[in-house]
Amino acid sequence: MASAQSLLRARDLAGIGIPTVALTRLVKSGKLERVSRGVYSLPDNTISEHRSLAEVALRVPKGVVCLLSALRVHAIGTQAPHEVWLAIEHQAPIPRLDRPAVHVVRMSAAARSEGVEIHVIDGVKVPVFSVAKTVADCFKYRNKIGLDVALEALRDAWVQRKITVDSLMHFATINRVANVIRPYVESVVA
């Protein structure tokens, strides 16, 4: 199972009848390594660039990778965040992870459910916002990440032809930033 899926959760093994004591023994013998609390991997597994996103997706299954982390996944802009940016529901408790570091952004159910894509990273299904949704979110949260990051994301996504004006304005309307983003879109598209 560990060779088929590079990251394992303890509760996945418990679901198929393997006791957690077996994990402890495998870690002590060096056949598995503990990546973080409740997450295990083979010791010689190659680590991908986005492994921290897979770890967070396993530990916070209802979260969606957003903003700077989503820009990195889509190869837009120059941002290299040192923490995983994660969108959660308004009422959800803040995840307490020892590592990797997580920056939480609270979003309404409507804003969190639109534009979600599933990316498979290290054998784990990771929900990530689409490019157009991510760019619209950058403008919504421009006070947190900076207007320069939002403008860079808009320019890069447009130049790389990863967004259309219609898709961007759709998500800008959902985020209630259509009037904010319109002048910037007109200057980039023109």
Question: Care to describe what's here?
Answer:
The chain has 190 residues and is an alpha+beta fold. The chain has two domains: 8-41, no CATH class; 51-189, Beta Polymerase, domain 2, CATH 3.30.460. The protein has ten helices and eight strands. It has helices spanning 10-15, 20-29, 51-59, 67-73, 109-113, 131-140, 142-145, 147-159, 165-174, 178-189, and strands spanning 8-9, 33-36, 39-41, 64-65, 84-88, 102-106, 116-121, 124-129. The protein has a three-stranded antiparallel β-sheet, with helices on both faces. A three-stranded mixed β-sheet has the order 4-5-6. A two-stranded antiparallel sheet has the order 7-8. Helix 6 packs across helix 9. It is elongated and about 60 Å long.
Please describe the structure with a list of short key phrases separated by commas or semicolons:
190 residues, alpha+beta, Beta Polymerase, domain 2, 2 domains, 3-stranded antiparallel sheet, 3-stranded mixed sheet, elongated
